[in-house]
Design a protein that fits this description.
By secondary structure, this protein is of the alpha/beta class. It is built from 15 helices and 8 strands. Helices cover 47% and strands 14% of the residues. It has an 8-stranded parallel β-barrel with strand order 1-2-3-4-5-6-7-8, surrounded by 7 helices. The N terminus is likely disordered.
């Protein structure tokens, strides 16, 4: 059991013993925390651009967080740090998706200023435990961290208080986007320290054999199962779509409470095509050449 002597890692006994700073409500930044405690939704969008003017635009849009993707986007550590610091300065919570389930990359993201860390394509309890260790036990690493995570060693009250304060506000988020992860979902979501789940709809649809068919019964069934299971565990959940807003509304009504809507390039592409179509039609020019790209993040 994490932080609890030699006990095994079991969610039921953990509920009675976990420190307050491990609960989801204490791991979220104040704005998101208060909204979730009040039963409200939190809103964000994804970013690929490092342009310095974006944070004020996001702030003025009333967003709670920004999703900075370093898995699919060529963004170096310095650029990620600059964005995280800028968004934090404007009161917008930076959430970074790291390239892979690597606890050292998670620590780097937090060092850069991320308050939330998303690890992609998680399919084992060990991967989620490593992510929880990186986001909740920093700066501990190596054998010492492993002993605390597995309950082989008890943390002193002084160290426990220090680690709790040091990692205050950090959010541990798992990307669930495969059939193997769904098959183990209950055990994955029972790992102590996990705060939230992001569904990756593109990878999940491909994994299900219905690529990009987001209205397919199999996809809807799978996403609904992930959302319902996550919410029953008392965790937050979001699903990232770059399509029409009505799709977000549908999934919120199904139980999602973290809305991750679109990303910068998709929004620009959609609006640009919309405006140019209107202009061309208005002046009598052929607007048939305009089409929206199938963009995925």
């Amino acid at each position: 059991m994490v932080l609890c002597g030699s006990k095994s890692l079991k969610a039921d006994s953990f509920e009675d013993e976990k420190p307050k700073y491990w609960t989801m409500s204490n791991n979220l930044p104040a704005g998101m925390l208060q909204k979730l405690k009040n039963g409200q939704n939190v809103y964000g969008t994804a970013f690929t651009s490092i342009a310095p003017s974006w944070p004020i635009i996001v702030k003025n849009a009333g967003l709670d967080f920004v999703f900075i993707d370093t898995e699919h986007i060529s963004m170096n550590r310095a650029d990620m740090a600059r964005l995280c610091q800028l968004f934090q300065a404007y009161g917008v919570t930076p959430v970074v998706r790291i390239p892979g389930p690597d606890p050292y990359l998670a620590c780097q993201a937090i060092d850069a200023g991320a308050k939330g860390v998303v690890a992609p394509y998680l399919e084992s309890t060990e991967q989620i435990l490593d992510l929880a260790g990186a986001t909740k036990f920093k700066p501990l690493k190596g054998e010492v961290l492993k002993k605390f995570l597995t309950g082989q060693q008890t943390m002193s009250p002084e160290l426990k208080a220090y680690i709790g304060k040091f990692n205050e506000g950090n959010i541990c988020i798992a990307n669930i986007e495969s059939v193997p992860a769904m098959d183990k979902l209950d055990s994955l979501l029972s790992v102590p320290g996990l705060d939230a789940v992001f569904i990756g709809p593109h990878d999940l649809s491909v994994n299900l054999g219905v690529p990009e068919q987001y209205d397919h019964p199999e996809f809807i069934k799978a996403a609904r199962y992930i959302i319902q299971t996550t919410r029953k565990k008392g965790l937050a959940i979001g699903i990232h779509f770059s399509l029409e807003p009505e799709r977000q509304i549908f999934w919120v009504k199904e139980g999602a409470n973290i809305i991750i809507h679109s990303f910068d390039i998709a929004l620009f592409s959609q609006r640009l095509n919309h405006d140019l179509r209107i202009i061309k039609q208005g002046v009598g020019d052929d607007a048939s050449g305009s089409r929206e790209s199938n963009l995925v993040v």
